[in-house]
Specification:
This protein has helices at residues 10-18, 67-77, 138-146, and strands at residues 2-4, 24-27, 36-37, 50-56, 78-87, 90-97, 105-114, 150-155, 163-169. It has three helices and nine strands. The strands form two sheets. Strands 3-2-1-4-5-9-8 form a seven-stranded mixed sheet. Strands 6-7 form a two-stranded antiparallel sheet. Strand 1, helix 1 and strand 2 (24-27) form a beta-alpha-beta unit. It is 17% helix and 34% strand. By secondary structure, it is of the alpha/beta class.
Length: 170
Amino acid sequence: MLEIGLGSGLVRDYIKNRTAIDYRSLDFDHQLRPDIIGDVRQIPTPDDSFDLVAAFEVLEHLPFADLEQALIELKRVAQRYVVISLPDCRAHLRFSAKLPLLPRLQKAVKLPFPRRPRFKPTGPESHWWEIGWRSHSARRIWQVLVNHFQILEDFVPYENQYHHFYVLKK
């Protein structure tokens, strides 16, 4: 498995400490001590190097114009699967009900407007775009993804509506 962008190290620590998965990381920041120093737009590994490639909350740190190149690289180094998450700034409503003897009922609904205003990126830690910003609709993101992958799953966890996950197959 290759994880693009170490972030807080949560995924790395979980996989390395609780599984037998062969884990590798890639980041451009050498201070994070990734296994591979590089850029998601030009991953310095051979084709089909990893069973699974994951990029959680990474791609929005690139200009939207670079998204296609990053997806091409993720697909190139993955043998079969790519899992990504993207921030989804659309406002939402969540409903939860628990009645005796019945399972909990939970439903979340995304609203068609962003939760917060757009701001200009100022550095590599800034978001250049998010799902729900003007001209970055969920439908547009879906179309970019299906140009490169088969989308096996597309979901937003009930507990955290800001993270939109996609499970992709080559």
